[in-house]
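Hi team,

Below is the intake form for FAD-binding dehydrogenase from Amnibacterium soli. Please confirm the fields before the structure is written into the shared record.

FORM ID: S-0412
PROTEIN: FAD-binding dehydrogenase
ORGANISM: Amnibacterium soli
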Amino acid sequence: MDADVLVIGGGLAGLVACAELTAAGRRVLLVEQESAANLGGQAFWSFGGLFLVDTPEQRRWGIRDSAELAWQDWRGSAQWDRLDDEDRWGAAWGEAYVAFAAGEERAWLQQQGVRFTPLVGWAERGDGRAGGHGNSVPRFHLPWGTGTGVSGPFAAKARAAAEEGLLGFRFRHRVDGLILEQGAVTGVRGAVLAPDEAARGVATNRREVGEFVLTARAVVLATGGIGADHDVVRAMWPERLGTPPARMLTGVPAHVDGRMLPIAEASGARVVNKDRMWHYTEGVANHDPIWAGHGIRILPGPSSMWFDALGRRLPAPGIPGHDTLGTLRLLRTDPAIAGFDHSWFVASQRIVEKEFALSGSEQNPDLTGHDWPLLLRTRLGSGPTPPVAAFERRGEDFVVADDLPALVAGMNRLTPDAPLELAVIEWQIRERDAELANPFTKDAQVQSIHNGRRARSDRFTRVASPHRILDPAAGPLVAVRLRVLTRKTLGGIETDLASRVLRADGTPMPGLYAAGEAAGFGGGGAHGYNALEGTFLGGCLFTGRAAGRALVAAL
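The structure came back. Fields below:
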């Protein structure tokens, strides 16, 4: 026997499981198909936001939150409708996670070395229904270091455990199958891949130079989702979201290929809710890409106008920052625009400066680098943040112009197959601008802007003062071509609350556990149909911890 536990996958969920196991003196082998440069996985590249409830940071901003309100929001967003089957364990995990987020999560993370900025964002503001999708209050907490600030402490714990002899690394080891003996999982087999010195995130070779077999008392699958494989994304694309785009941007490195899901399923594990996924509609091509098709998500405030490929303003819930999958549904289920892969933001420079943020650790050097002076200078000073300014100058999807005719002409140069009519765009912008003459409005988006300004955290950091987009003093004008950005798998391997993998008959597979995105962030679907943001890293933390603690108790 090579170890007490084999942890497959060196992302956040796997690292947390390793930390729990080695802290209790268990011997662990971490098996990862990529090189040591990629320790921390997809979490390293993330913005790092965490869904937390009733925190000191919220209270400082005057935000009143509670576990009851958070669970109402989670349940309304998840919209579980398979509770007698595929949603049974996902719903249990969702309820358990909300209790964790409202309870010990923040203190536990601080004990692990995670530190929080005072910023609390309002992500997924909702579909307009009290019991529907969305966060009723801001609860998106930003850690210092962004994604690196969450994954980094656990990567450091893994290296320290390796120095103590409790943890062994098996990098460039790709698992191709599970070993079963009398119905129990006792190890893994696979191929040793040739060394590759590529930088973190860059695709590596798949040349096989050997084979391996590893055995242990238990195996934890923490191998992520399908986001980098567009063919698989399209194959699983649900009818309720219309037709998948012919062309998409990729929001995750190439190694996020989901290949362990069918391998686990072939060995007897149940994989559920395959039709549930999470992709962003505000993707732009990275002007300095790290992986093929590398896209970056714009994290918008509520003020930009959103138009489809034909130049029609999106109705609610197609308001920036409100309802990710609701907007995706608007864009992909309308036959008139099904042949196009893009939509548009139109904003003033004032909106861009106040409201545009970019997802990703590398796009936020102030937060990632723990740089208070840079944060104060770039977030609260004049002008956009340097990364946003770079996209305005160099991004292929950005158009900047001094007047609307020039802006629309620039947009049409980017998408000549879907020409926009200046008069139609101008009429819709002037309609919206007319709603700003007084504090009362029937326009749902303008209502959201006023509502956001009532939240001190938003007023201070994320929502521009209401103004006419065509006001020359707020210019120049900015248009951004947006495309679908692949990201998360919401379904996955079904697990009970101890992270034990379940068979089709509902019984646990002895020796097999799953955590993180591979497990649908718990139970094969803790989010149901929608997510509230800040819950993906949180789900990896929670399920990785649960798997580790369950194994400590069991072994």
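SUMMARY LINE: Residues 417 and 425 are 17 Å apart (CA to CA).

Thanks, M.
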